[in-house]
TrEMBL record:
The keyword Kinase does not apply. This is Uncharacterized protein. It comes from Dendrothele bispora (strain CBS 962.96). Residues 308-339 are annotated as: Disordered. Keywords: Signal.
Length: 677
């Protein structure tokens, strides 16, 4: 039996890890879910006993696998991801269809064990668009420690793993009702606050990098290994109302797989090391419907919605479930904008955090005119550097984002800014056309920004996708031009709009990828018509591309990647990754895609075309889950014949973080200017 108590052991769990524990727990307590029901905080072991008490239902298991399989028919990257091109061949080599067949035939001790295998199988794609999330388990409770970690660099260039200098302030503000629990676990001569900044020499008896690298193999979301290492550590993000603190994979987990962790640490100002053991504590998720026992847990949080009754003229995005919205890595966004605008945004099993960055680390000066929710404008003390902190490419009304971005950038120029720092730390994407608009506003009208400020793309042209297009053309099943498959939505590679009766998927472009035949649409051109912007971009550049620096911790995805790549590769913008391991290449973005979507949207497309009974259509999902996909895949800039997804994006600077810089946005921006501008 696998020991599930330690942090390191939990990183390797899958299969029948919990079988013996479950049987014992059920014999002793009857319904283990009654012990955690109605509680705000529980021990991970008690929550795990609840989760593992439910056996696999073979009907539900096969339903999940069928839904994933048939939704993947619309995922453009399936065959590419069997073995990605260099430099990501070692990072992406997952044959999903083969592994789903394995899972279908494999036995599991519990439904939870099945979920872990499904989740980690999809995460091996290292693609934040194509993930499997089950609301029954993922982030139902969140597993926390009070000691987020950071990677610091000293004056000699040596790097050490440390407890964040601000750890106690974060924990005491966010977990005031649990601080005493953690304090009681420490030796009498050690306070929780005294751990701030401590150097970590071992984690569960091994070098911390053993855990960091093991976590990088299962966390998913990004192709770059360095970016997945960085996910272990704490960071920050601008949200709609404040600056949020990202705890990192060590101090916050979406599943209750770790009970405790033992660290050997050297506290600041101390010569000797101390060995400490701290328990993880699981807190109920903010969107979890409270329950009292197994039946109420399953009924309230686990059952799937009926996806078979979408109206034939419903917008795909308007029918997106609350569960999809919960796990999208974007703040809540007005429904009218979601209905009208295309998205390219990550999904993650951990929803966006609401932990707050300590006030003393937030910018002290008030944001300038044009600032809005996720977008804040500042001027640095040098009088020539403007800053745009942009936590998402959505999270506000689309028109508001356009007008506010232009107002704020013009305001910076009027104050004397000649150079710009754009901080997109932990930006998971959003509206595709906001990425195009921001690019166009910054560099003015030129061949790389007008009419196409993004990437040409392609969609997958499977049999069912081709049927949807034919139904739209022949039967007028999309009179309001809301479908992703309506030819009126798209242009050809020369940016000429398709006619209403043009079948853009027939004939398909047939390719063989990693030995597998595949079919795609013709090349699609610009999708964000400059004349269609509700705010008119200026007729000249606001900043030279070489005077723009894009800053993040590598976790810039989807529309954030589309913006960063085109600015870096076409306009000469500089790129910075914060605090990565110095001997590992740092990618300034990942999970590029072209346009993302999900099972719910695909189901509504199929239903609107009257094809729900087609044997190729995925059935209604019986659980409250999310299967994401990359619906369109962008072509590259350096190699325009291949997807940009697996082309290289090395950062110009891997900025070493010190205690003075870490998680301090203004200090970081100032240092970036010194080094690059």
């Amino acid at each position: 039996m696998v020991n599930t108590g330690s942090f390191l052991a939990a990183l390797g769990i899958f299969g029948s890890a919990f079988a013996s524990d479950v049987a014992i727990e059920k014999r002793q307590s009857g319904d283990p879910c009654a012990k955690v029901g109605g509680q705000k905080w529980v021990s991970p072991s008690d929550l795990r006993a609840c989760f593992t008490s439910v056996p696999v239902d073979p009907v539900i298991k096969e339903n999940i696998i069928e839904v994933i399989n048939k939704t993947l028919a619309f995922h453009t990257s399936v065959n590419y991801q069997i073995s990605a091109p260099e430099p990501f061949t070692e990072d992406v080599h997952e044959d999903l269809l083969k592994d789903l067949a394995r899972i279908s035939g494999q036995s599991y001790a519990s439904d939870f064990d099945l979920h872990i295998d499904l989740s980690r199988t999809l995460k091996r794609l290292n693609d934040g668009h194509c993930v499997w999330i089950n609301n029954c388990y993922d982030s139902l409770f969140l597993n926390f420690l009070p000691i987020p970690l950071v990677l610091l660099t000293d004056n000699s260039g040596a790097q050490t793993v440390n407890i964040a200098p601000e750890a106690f302030k974060v924990a005491s503000a966010e977990f005031p009702d649990q601080v005493d629990v953690w304090q009681a676990a420490l030796p009498e001569n050690i306070t929780l606050e005294s751990l701030n900044g401590a150097t970590v020499s071992t984690l569960d008896g091994k070098d911390p990098w053993v855990a960091i690298n093991a976590n990088a193999l299962i966390t998913g979301s990004f192709e770059g290994f360095g970016t997945r290492q960085n996910a272990f550590f704490s960071s920050y993000q601008r949200s709609t109302s404040t600056w949020n603190y990202i705890m990192g994979n060590f101090a916050q987990q979406s599943l209750p797989l770790s009970d405790s962790v033992t660290l050997e640490v050297q506290r600041v100002g101390q010569q000797d090391t101390d060995k400490i053991t701290l328990p993880y504590r699981a807190r109920i998720g903010t969107a979890t419907l409270n329950f009292t026992d197994t039946q109420s847990w399953r009924n309230l949080n686990c059952k799937g919605a009926d996806t078979s009754g979408f109206a034939s003229n419903s917008s795909p995005d308007s029918s997106t479930s609350k569960t999809v919205a919960k796990f999208r890595q974007q703040p809540p966004t007005p429904a009218k904008s979601l209905q009208k605008q295309s998205l390219n945004v990550m999904l993650d099993s951990t929803p966006l955090t609401d932990v707050v960055l300590p006030p003393e680390l937030q910018p002290a000066s008030p944001p300038l005119n044009g600032s809005f929710g996720v977008g804040q404008f500042f001027m640095l003390d040098d009088g020539i550097t403007g800053v745009l902190a942009l936590g998402s490419f959505s999270g506000a009304d689309f028109d508001t984002m356009e007008s506010s971005l232009l107002e704020g950038l013009l305001g910076l120029k009027s104050m004397g800014a000649t150079q710009l720092v754009v901080d997109v730390s932990n930006n998971g994407g959003g509206f595709i056309c906001i990425a195009h608009f921001l690019h166009r506003v910054l560099v003015g009208p030129k061949s790389t920004s007008d009419p196409q400020a993004g990437l040409d793309t392609k969609a997958r042209a499977g049999p069912l996708a081709q049927m949807i297009v034919k139904r739209i053309i022949e039967n007028n099943t999309d009179p309001n031009v809301e479908s992703l498959y309506n030819p009126l939505q798209w242009t050809n590679a020369s940016d000429v709009p398709f006619a209403a009766n043009f079948d853009w998927l027939d004939p398909p472009v047939r390719l063989t990828i990693n030995g597998h035949p595949d079919a795609f649409s013709q090349r699609l051109g610009q999708e964000c018509v400059p004349s269609g912007f509700t705010t008119t971009p200026p007729d000249e550049a606001l900043f030279e591309g070489s005077k723009v620096v894009i800053v993040n911790n590598g976790r810039c995805a989807s529309s954030c990647s589309l913006f960063s790549i085109t600015m870096a590769k076409e306009e000469g913008a500089k790129t910075v990754v914060l605090g990565g391991k110095k001997d590992v290449q740092q990618e300034y973005c990942g999970t590029v895609g072209g346009q993302s979507t999900d099972f719910v949207t695909i189901s509504s497309e199929i239903a609107a075309a009257g094809l729900s009974d087609n044997p190729l259509a995925p059935p209604p999902l019986m659980v409250n889950g999310v299967q994401g996909i990359t619906w369109r895949l962008g072509f590259g800039i350096d190699n325009p014949d291949e997807p940009e997804e697996w082309q290289d994006h090395p950062a110009d600077l891997n900025l070493p973080l010190t205690p003075e810089l870490v998680n301090n946005p203004v200090a970081i921006w100032t240092e970036v200017v010194k080094r690059l501008l």
